[in-house]
């Protein structure tokens, strides 16, 4: 039996829920949301490590149409994000359409039926006219391939699979990784364990976090006058947008301003770390913005504590009771924490096998040609597919800006389909090629190509060496394009349609 639906959404995080809310608004109610996890919220369901918090202020890191007056701090802790996701799912009646513990293995376009056939691990396949993938960017945890890892006799915990039942008290712990996760985790670990050794391969730029509890009267004010919270969101968003536009996208024109962020991070480090050698080790050798920077008031100062060590010599071997580095030092440990991040490009683009028209395999096509997606959401020969976590989709610093721009794109696209009485859409090869050329040109000004990113090891770069993760436009431009993209960039077919052009006749990147 193949269950038939109007749409299947893969992923019950904020991206998938945004798509679902938009479908309801469009009157498309027959959809299911599939998620491999046991609960909703995506990242905020999976990540539960000590110290987890958002590092984009919560007034901005939330749906603009669903403000939450109850954030306890400017930067809410992880469990509040999870609660917010639960609230959104309930309020927008999404839960009854969600199916958990359902891992999608592949999706294939059936040209005859003009539908997607979605297969799931150990379950019946589903058929849908429209497919939305909202599988996130950071959803495939990366375990490093270090010799001897399988011989380790102590406890190993990945940050994305935290074991709350394991007591940290009195342990000799090591942590591998110094990304945004480790920056939040390290001060928390240091407060509990007996010894902490931090293995750093690449230092991270860290700037101060201006965080504070939100007093109850302010929360009441937000609840009573949502306009006040909207104004706070606007101010915070404008500041973030200036930071990313100046520091990242227009590095060529504003190199000095971008250097300001670097200076701030250096001053922060100088103010917090006493030992000059430790400061030197913690100072990145690449330009600010090449790799995702982060915010913390407690990370640097943790390295002043006598039981915390920073090791920068590369890890050679993991032994049953310790770690040996290239300089010959072996450190005995009971606990190994992997804050080693996520596999983006190898396993996440796309996260499941997707085969479109004429047998085009999305992952293979991206790898054989270039990573590309029109407006960060659609690809030629993938009819009726909206791929929310695609190259050039992430716009601005808050993920919610990306989600809401994509919701606008969906509204315009599906609105036009309805106007034409169409049932199938597909972006043209030409529109996709033009978009890719525009993004490539825009990146020329960015820190990725104008700054010094050689040593950053940044996941912003794909395996071809192109910085194709972020969309190199300001958020206002991304929103404007989502509202106004030329409708004949798509071919629409189906009953009673007026098809502007046959995508098969267009030229483009193959
Ligand atoms: P990450 O930024 O990819 O950092 C992974 C760390 O592990 C890096 O320091 C990396 O070193 C190191 N590493 C990986 N493999 C290694 C190996 N084989 N040997 C030695 N070191 C190794 O991952 P993350 O810290 O989990 O953060 C991922 C993203 O999640 C962030 O960039 C951010 O977007 C998001 N995040 C957000 C928040 C928030 O508050 N909103 C909090 C946490 C995370 P190299 O740099 O040398 O590769």
Automatic annotation (TrEMBL):
One Gene Ontology molecular-function label: monooxygenase activity
Keyword Oxidoreductase: yes
Superkingdom, natural source: Bacteria
Pfam families: Pyr_redox_3 (PF13738)
UniProt keyword list: Monooxygenase, Oxidoreductase
Protein name according to UniProt: Monooxygenase
Biological source species: Kibdelosporangium phytohabitans
